[in-house]
Amino acid sequence: MKKQKHFYHNLISIEDIKIELNSINLSKEERKELHLIAESTIHCHLINVVLEHLPEGDKKTFLHHVNTVHHKTTLNFLKKRIENIEDKIKQTAESLKKEFLEDIRKIK
How far is CA 86 from the centre of its chain? Predict the structure, then answer.
């Protein structure tokens, strides 16, 4: 099954989490589940960041476009409405990624 991409897929990477998970003694299924939890958590936080900064009238439009395959269109829509949205997305993702990596390293 092909991994679904999102409007922010060119801005962030969570490959570090996958690599770190591969370094601990877990079954393939456990690693896959933990990676999915990290992806889902980051996704939810990024949607929240956008909704926090998006003008009220644009929220419904964004939610309509968020799961389309038109990622560039969605990101361009956001860039026109939220100042420095790319930086906000990157900062949020990096902060969450750092937390996940710290938690993984604690159980090593």
Answer: 12
Report d(CA 90, CA 94) in Å as an integer: 6
What does the pLDDT average to over 83-90?
A: 98
**Which pLDDT band holds residue 1 (cuts at 50, 70, 90)?**
very low
Q: How far, in Å, are 4, 15, 50, 51, 87 from residue 59 at the CA level? A: 22, 30, 9, 6, 19
Q: Which residue has 């591969």 as its token pair?
A: 22
Which pLDDT tens digit goes with each residue over 41-75?
999 999 999 999 999 999 999 998 887 878 899 99
Rounded Cα gap, residues 93 and 102, in angstroms: 14
Q: What is the DSSP letter of 56?
A: G
